[in-house]
Known about the structure:
Mean pLDDT of chain B: 92
Strand content of chain A: 15-25%
CATH class of chain B: Alpha Beta
Number of domains of chain B: 1
CATH architecture of chain B: Roll
Distance between the termini of chain B: 21 Å
Order of helices and strands of chain B: HHEEHEEEEE
Number of strands of chain A: 24
Number of strands of chain B: 7
Largest sheet of chain A: 9 strands, antiparallel
Oligomer: heterodimer
Strand content of chain B: 35-45%
Number of helices of chain A: 13
Number of helices of chain B: 3
Amino acid sequence: MATQSLEEISKLIETGRVHRRVYTDPEIFDLEMERVFGRAWLFVGHASQVPKPGDYFTTELGRQPVVMTRDRDGKVHVLFNRCTHRGAKVVNDRCGHAARMTCLYHGWSFDADGTLAAVPIPDGCAPGFRKEDFGLARVPRVQEYRGFVFASLAQNGSSFEDQIGPMKGSIDDLVDRAPDGELAFDLGQHRYAYNGNWKLQIENVLDSYHVPFGHASTVNKEGAQFARREGDKEGAKVVETKDQNKTAASWRNRKSYVTGNGHGWSSNTVLDDGKRSSPAFDEYKRVLVEKVGAERAAQILTPRLHNSLIYPNVSIMGLNIHVRVIKPIAVDRTEVTVYPVRLLGAPDTMNFGNMRLLNVTHSAASFVQTDDVESFVRTQKGLRSLATDWVDISRGLGAEESDRTYNATRGASVGELAMRAQYKAWLGYMQEAA
Amino acid sequence: MDNVVRIPSPQSTSLARETFELFLIHEAKLLDERRFRDWMELFTEDGAYWVPAAPNQESPFNHASLFYDDRTLMKTRIDRLEHPRIHIQTPPSRTAHIVGNTLVDKIDEAKGEVVVSSTVMMVEYRDESQRIFAGRQFHRLRRAAEGYKIVLKRVNLINCDSAFDAMAVPI
C-alpha cells in the first residue's frame, strides 16, 4: 500500500497549512486507516450500551467491524466481528442480547468473551481441531475509564495512560455532572453522514471561528444564537452586535487548549453563571448540592475541559451534553453518531430537556449541525480545485501560550491552534513506520 | 381551499376517509410549494410534528428524534428556512410528496378527534442529487370551528434509524 514515501507524507503538512491531498487522496485515506485508526486509542462505546451479561453492541473501529459485549462476570470485551470459520460477520444487529453469538452460516456459536462454545456436527472436524484455537479474535488492547470504552487495534504502542491520560479530565467533567457519578447512553442516538473527509468534522468541533458565519441562520440580529442549554435565555454571542468584525467581549476570553496527541478542548462560559434558571436546572442544582455538597457542586459547575476532542474519533460536548463519534467510511464519506447522555441522579426533566435540545442542534434534521455538514460537503467539493494545493490553518499562529494549570498550550478559541495540533499528531502517526 | 379543510361532521368512515385524504393532499401540496407558514397553521396551538429516530419509538420525551417540533420550534425552524443564509438550503430543496393508502384508524366523537394513517413518499432534489423518504404517517386531527387541525403528525420513516445526509425540510 505504501506508495507514499515517508518523505512525501512529511511534505503534506507545513506550518499553518495542510495539503489538499490530505482530504482528497484515497491512498492517504487507506494509509490513515492503517496508521492512525490502526494504532490510536479509539472510542468504542459506553459500558451502559451493554448493561447486562449477554448484551452486545456492534460498531467499527476504522474499517474493522467489532462487537462490544459483556460476559457473565460483567466484564466488557471488544471482539472482531468475524467468524473464525469462514469469515462471516457474526453479529448483524446494531445492538441486542444473545446467550451466545451464533454465526448464521454454519452455526458456530461464541460466548460473550469470544470463546468458541460449540460447533455443529463436531465429528466432522479435522483431526487436531481445537475449539480453543477458534475463539473470536480480541481487539488487542481495551481499556475502560468511567464507562468510556477505548480500544487500540495495535498490539503495541503508546499506552492508554500516555495517549488518553491527559483527556481523562474531559470525561471526568461530564461524569461528575451526574449527581450519581455515572452516565447512561440510553436516550437513543442521532446518526448523520456527509460526502466529505472525516477530518473536516474533527476540525469543526473545536472551531469557534465558524459560528457566526456558518450558523448565520440560527443567529439573531444581535448576533446571539438561540439558547442551547437548559435554563439559558439565549445562546452564545461570538461577535459584537455593533461591529461584527470584532469578537464579542464574552467570547474573547475563551481559549482553545491542546495537549499533544491531537487532543484539545475549548473553555466555556460558566455552567452556573447566575443567569441560568429553569425549574429543571434549579432542581438539578439542588440535587447535585444535596449529593456532593455546595463546594464540590460549585466546582463541578465551573468549566474546565469543555467541548473536547479526544483524537481521532470522539468528541465530548459539555455545552449541550452529548458524546459524538466520528467514523471514516471513505476519503469523501463520513458517518457520525451523536449520543445524548443521561446524567444519572439528575431529574428526568433536566435529562430529557437536554435530550430534546439535542434534536434541535445535532439531529440529521437539526438547525445547527446541518449547516456544518453543508460546509464539509462544500469544502470537499472546493478541494478538487487545483487553484492552490494549500488549506490555511494559520489563525493565531505565533500567539500560542503555555498553560500551567492544564499543562497545555492555549490560544484564542477563534483561532486554529486545535487544527494545527491535530495535524501534528496526524503526521506523527502517518510517519511512524509500520 | 386554503389552510384548513372545511368539512361537515363525518357521518361515516367512508365519507371521512375521502375528506381526510383531501386534507393530507392539501398538506403535502403546501410542503411541496414551500408554504411553510401556511403548513404550520394547519397545526393546533398545542400541535406537534414528530419524526422518530427509532422504529416503534414510544415517546419523543425520553428518546432522540429526527424532528420533534412543538409550535415554538416549528416557528424557529421556519424562520430559519426563510433565512437568506441557511446554507443547507442553498440551493433550496424541491420536493414531491405522494400520499396514499389512507385509512381512518380512530374516531373519537367525544373529543372531536380522528387519527388518519397514510403512506407517504417524498422525493427530494437538491444540489444535483435526488433521494427518497418513505414511511407511514399518522395524523391526529381535532375538529375546530374552521375545520380540522393537526394535533400530532407522526412520520415513521422506514429508514428512521439510518445515518441521513442532512435534512432541512419537513416530510
